[in-house]
Amino acid sequence: MEFDTVIIGAGAAGMMCAAHSGGRTLVIDHAKAAGEKIRISGGGRCNFTNLDAKPENFISKNPHFCKSALKRYTQWDFIDLMAKHQIAWHEKTLGQLFCDGSAKQVVAMLLQEMQSVGAEIWLKTSVASVVRNGDTFELTLKREDTQINVSSKNLVLASGGKSIPKMGATGLAYELATQFGLELTDVRPALVPLTFSDQRYAPISGVSAPVRASANGTEFEEACLFTHRGLSGPAILQASSYWCEGDVVCLDLDPDGTLFEILRTARQEQGKRDITTILTQQYPARLVQHLSDEMQIKGRIGDQSDAALEQLCSHLRNWEQRPTGSEGYRTAEVTLGGIDTDGLSSKTMEAKAVKGLYVIGEAMGVTGWLGGYNFQWAWSSGWAAGTAI
Ligand code: FDA
């Protein structure tokens, strides 16, 4: 069977691309349903973009690569698409937009958009092989035990990264990219909880506190969640994208810098109280207990000199953690790195050296922060390739 374009992966990027590509388009996916990650994202409400999305929110070997697509298909364009389909949304926090109803509405919207341009979708279909014959890609597909040969002028790699293999993530895009001579950057799990070899935070598992978490010079002010296995919560997930094995993550437990004055005031007004009692007015009691054991915090607040209070605040502002690892692809929201952007056009996402081969979405080495940025990249890169085809 002949198509103009075959898109491998009916995820966010693949569907967006199919909705905009001209000619006869086929989208294939080995999953039972399209857009499974969209469906489960944002607790079932899909954090589909971010009001503040800008190139600085993306990690890439070439930080300029994402600029063109993000500028040409913006968060406002996607918001317009949601409006066209009458899908209600709200801003939760930090510019993060979620559906009022269900993430399934976003999947249905993309399927409708694809249908309106006549794109076909084959689910439960896997790729046995791809070869290039002149200007044509020849694919051998397996669809429910039947082998089907398909050819196309354009081939779009939209099968995502390695995160959450249980949801069908595979390294197929990387394998095909390598087959066609594209380079890969190092890949690792990102937006992922960090772990320790001991269970040091098991006693305070479930406790959450606002922090400024930094790794390798990039910091995020959000909540940190202590877990049985280590550290999680948005601040840690964000920092994990900048953290490499062996590195320190620094937690500032006084992100707004007010603790010293609070302690000095308490010294005057509540001098007879234990310093840990004062700290429980600022932090969860279980966290204070943990910190007081670790940092030897004790004594009456009234007996503390300015220097002692300064030292305590300094400890709490620079609480260094050296995780031993991460929860890995099993729970990582994204894969950091991927198909090297150096080999791709930032305007069209087409491989510079292989005419008709495109890479979009998470498969390539462009990784967004937590907060709707990864879907925005899927929409923008999918649109850029689709409109170029
Ligand atoms: P995506 O992974 O969506 O799609 C790839 C498709 O290819 C899948 O349908 C898969 O089945 C298919 N495929 C893979 N291998 C194949 C093979 N060998 N053969 C055939 N098909 C194959 N981002 C965000 O911005 N806001 C959010 O709220 C969330 N929430 C979130 C929650 C969870 C639990 C996860 C795991 C991830 C998120 N993300 C997110 C990240 C976001 O889901 C992700 O970055 C995008 O889905 C990437 O879109 P792609 O289309 O590139 O890949």
Structure report:
- Keywords: FAD, Flavoprotein.
- Residues 4-387 form the RsdA/BaiN/AoA(So)-like Rossmann fold-like domain.
- Its cofactor is FAD.
- Residues 188-334 form the RsdA/BaiN/AoA(So)-like insert domain.
- This protein is an alpha+beta fold.
- Helices cover 30% and strands 26% of the residues.
- It has twelve helices and 21 strands.
- The protein has helices spanning 12-20, 36-44, 67-72, 75-84, 104-116, 172-179, 234-240, 259-269, 275-279, 285-295, 306-317, 373-388, and strands at residues 2-8, 25-28, 47-50, 58-60, 89-91, 96-99, 120-122, 125-133, 136-143, 146-157, 188-190, 194-195, 208-215, 218-226, 230-232, 249-252, 319-321, 325-326, 334-336, 357-359, 366-368.
- Strand 13 and strand 14 form a beta hairpin.
- Helix 8 (259-269) runs antiparallel to helix 11.
- The longest helix is centred in the last third of the chain and has 16 residues, at 373-388.
- Bound molecules: dihydroflavine-adenine dinucleotide.
- Dihydroflavine-adenine dinucleotide (FDA) binds next to helix 1, helix 2, strand 8 and helix 12.
